[in-house]
Amino acid sequence: MGTPAFAVPSLSTLIENGYRIAGVVTAPDKPAGRGQQVRMPDVKRFALQAGLPVMQPLNLRDREFLDLLHSMNIDLAVVVAFRMLPAELWSLPRMGAMNLHASLLPQYRGAAPINWAIINGENKSGLTTFMIDHQIDTGKILMQEEITISENETAGTLHDKMMKQGAKLVLKTIRGMLSGNITTLDQSLLEKQGFILKSAPRITREDCVIIWTHTVASICRLVRGLSPHPCAFTEMTAPSGQKYSLRAFFARPAEIYPPSPAPCGQVLWNPHKDSIFVQAADGVVALTEVQLAGKKKMPAGEFLKGFPLDNHWKMGQPEITTK
């Protein structure tokens, strides 16, 4: 059971190692991209190429769907990057349902553990396999592996590392379960005195706004933690007052001497013309890869050829409208 590209290597690894996949459950096809063309999930595309039966129920409690799964005599449900399962589904397989989560549980339970680990400045994260129960990401732990978060890690690079290592951990976990060599661990035993539990809720549009009154380090982490998706953004205001939405894919601290006395959000002159310098609370942020709304992503040096920014330009927070 899975939907995005993150889940594909786990499915592929199980097939390569001789496990019989009774079926693949994934999300329904849906419109995506500028043209809103209907696209199938990555897992479905791979499963069809592998000749596997695919199920895309709108409702995981649908009686016909559950009856079909029951008729398959499933031993184990393997869940990677899917959605919350109802008890009728996770309790159906003989051995239950195991899930791969992209954090060291109980830390960073939720939909966006990769993003929040980088945004919060963690120097390590990891992967956890656990048995699904009634609540989100709270089941008994099967296996865990640590992963180092490098200084310039983005959500994209950490995602790819976890995707590959996660497939290996899924395989290792299933082998351990079948051989009886795994002892499950209750997550509550890891919550020691003084333990601060950090969550990983779904990223909202408000979370993606760059706030220039924050520190350089926190802004750079935000940009990296949301790159390449959903992406941090800011509102760029020209001397004429015209406003542009600008997405940022990578940011680093800029060394300027003497320090600038400019107000937060002020664009500063960059003599190297290889990045966009913006004043933050305690220093200057260099945006090195950006995208103007409706245009393609490009290095900041290329962007500056069309937008020769100087200190008459400002960066600020756009108004966020919610439905």
State the share of residues found in helices, binned by percent. 10-25%
Number of separate domains: 2
Task: Report the uncertain regions.
Answer: none
**Overall morphology:** elongated
Structural class: alpha+beta
Proportion of strand residues:
15-25%
Annotation, overall tally of beta strands: 15
Q: How much is the radius of gyration in Å? A: 23 Å
Briefly note the CATH topology name of the largest domain: Rossmann fold
CATH class of the largest domain: Alpha Beta
User: What's the CATH superfamily of the largest domain, by name?
Assistant: Formyl transferase, N-terminal domain
Task: Quickly give the CATH architecture of the largest domain.
Answer: 3-Layer(aba) Sandwich
Describe the model.
The longest helix has 25 residues, at 155-179. With 323 residues, the protein is of the alpha+beta class. The mean pLDDT is 94. Helix 1 packs parallel to helix 6 and helix 5 runs antiparallel to helix 7 (216-225). The protein folds into 2 domains: 5-190, 3-Layer(aba) Sandwich (Rossmann fold); 206-316, Formyl transferase, C-terminal domain (Methionyl-tRNA Fmet Formyltransferase, Chain A, domain 2). Helices cover 24% and strands 23% of the residues.
In brief:
The chain is of the alpha+beta class and 323 residues long. The two termini are 31 Å apart.
Key attributes of the depicted protein:
single chain, 323 residues, alpha+beta, Rossmann fold, Methionyl-tRNA Fmet Formyltransferase, Chain A, domain 2, seven-stranded antiparallel sheet, four-stranded mixed sheet, 8 helices, 24% helix, elongated
